[in-house]
Amino acid sequence: MPTADCRLERKSSSFSGQYATGQLWRYNLAEDAGQLPWNSNVPFIAEAAVNGSVKGGWEALPEIQGMDFNRTFAVAPGAVMPFYQTRAYDASKVKGAIMVMPGKPRDCWKYTSLVQNALDVYTTNPQSVSSNPDGSASNGARTSADQVLIMGPCWMNADDHQAGAILQGELYWLRTQWQSGMASRGPGDTRISSSQLMDAFIDTLFDKIQFPSLETVVMAGHSFGAQMAQR
């Protein structure tokens, strides 16, 4: 598979002449646990600590800095989908929404925080990305933080239900079937496909009564979550 050679030259005195080759993991040896050197001025939201495990099930869904945890989104009577959302957002200002899906470990809190970090970098250091429509560097971000709503759906499975992360009346799936559009295995005999659930989220976002200024919804994901976003 060809490897991109993304040369990102930094003009600051401390990083002058250095570039990244596209293998940015070399700068990140602690599992996404800090900012890249040229964004060190931006505070980093670390991954929340969670009890449980990928195979044995997560015991709880953690609170995340800067996010509210929504456990009231009912897609059917008695069937709630838990998800993270930007804390205290003003729906009248939201122009874009980002929905981020986790990978096989179902660690929705991690990737929600990573998208938060990316938005913080963009709004704080807009010069670190090509922000202008013509691709040239910009000294100002084209989007403010309050115009973006981040959402992190929690695609939990039966192991998480048994371990305690999923409460009574909340949706869960068998193993990794959520990423392929399969039907839920609970609560009870509720059978709602993950694709139907995504439609419910998107329909809500494009409801002009609730989000009058919304223009764009971006679906992002890691690994299995990326596969889901492609489907």
TrEMBL record:
Superkingdom of the organism of origin: Eukaryota
InterPro entries xrefs: AB_hydrolase_fold
PANTHER family named in the record: BLL0132 PROTEIN, PEPTIDASE S9 PROLYL OLIGOPEPTIDASE CATALYTIC DOMAIN-CONTAINING PROTEIN
Name of this chain's protein: Uncharacterized protein
Organism of provenance: Ustilago hordei
